Amino acid sequence: MKFLNKLLISIVLLTLLSAFLPGCSNLHKIRANNRHSLNFLSVGMTKQEVLEVMGTITLQAIGETITNPYRTEMHRLGGHYFEVILYYTDLKSQGSTITDDELTPIIMKDGRLDGWGWSYWNNAISKYEVRMR
Predict the structure, then answer these.
(1) Confidence of residue 57 (pLDDT cuts 50, 70, 90)
(2) Which residue segments constitute the domains of the chain, with CATH numbers given?
(3) What is the DSSP string of 4-48?
(4) Which of 58, 39, 51, 60 is nearest to 83 (CA)?
(5) What pLDDT, in 10s, does the model give residues 97-128?
(6) In whole angstroms, what is the distance from residue 40 CA to residue 7 CA?
(7) Could you give the CA distance from residue 22 to residue 12 in angstroms, rounded to a whole number?
(8) What's the Rg (C-alpha) of the chain?
(9) How many angstroms separate the CA atoms of 124 and 130, rounded?
(10) Which residues contact 70 (CB under 8 A, 6 or more apart)?
């Protein structure tokens, strides 16, 4: 009887675990694909070209929807329009919430790709005195 109970519990646990593993695998794939796609960006690309390179898929994983791009922000400063397109590229913590440090910013200035990455964006913030909310 004890053996059957342990077996039943093991089967239930394995079934539950296997239900979550594909989501983790999908999240890993989307991060890896996004990191790989960054290698094909070139300064001066249009937004449409950037989106074609980076992709625009939506993924369901473990009850969470991951969109590509994950988020966008708009800023206007000194006659320039900045659009920051953020893609999910890294896993920094095991929590269910995706944090800013797990995203990579792609910076469009006046409709053209100006640069990408946190170092680039932080330099642009300083250079153009962008006020973050």
Answers:
(1) confident
(2) 2-128 (3.30.1450.10)
(3) HHHHHHHHHHHHHHHHHHHHHHHHHHHHHHHHHHHTT--TT-BHH
(4) 51
(5) 888 999 999 999 999 999 999 999 999 888 87
(6) 50
(7) 17
(8) 20
(9) 8
(10) 86, 87, 88, 98, 103
Task: Write the pLDDT tens digit of every residue in 61-103.
Answer: 667 778 999 999 998 877 889 999 999 998 887 777 888 999 9
User: What pLDDT score was predicted for residue 103?
Assistant: 96
pTM metric for this prediction? 0.75
Q: Return the residue matching tokens 């913590």.
A: 93
What is residue 46's three-state secondary structure? strand
Give every CB contact of residue 57 below 8 A, 6+ residues apart in sequence.
Answer: 30, 68
Pairing of strands 64-67, 71-77: unpaired
Nearest by Cα to 70 from 62, 59, 80: 59
Largest CA distance in the chain: 76
Inter-residue contact 101 to 49 (CB < 8 Å): no
Q: What is the DSSP string of 56-121?
A: --EEEETTEEEESS-EEEEEEETTEEEEEEEEE-----SSSSPPGGGEEEEEEETTEEEEESHHHH
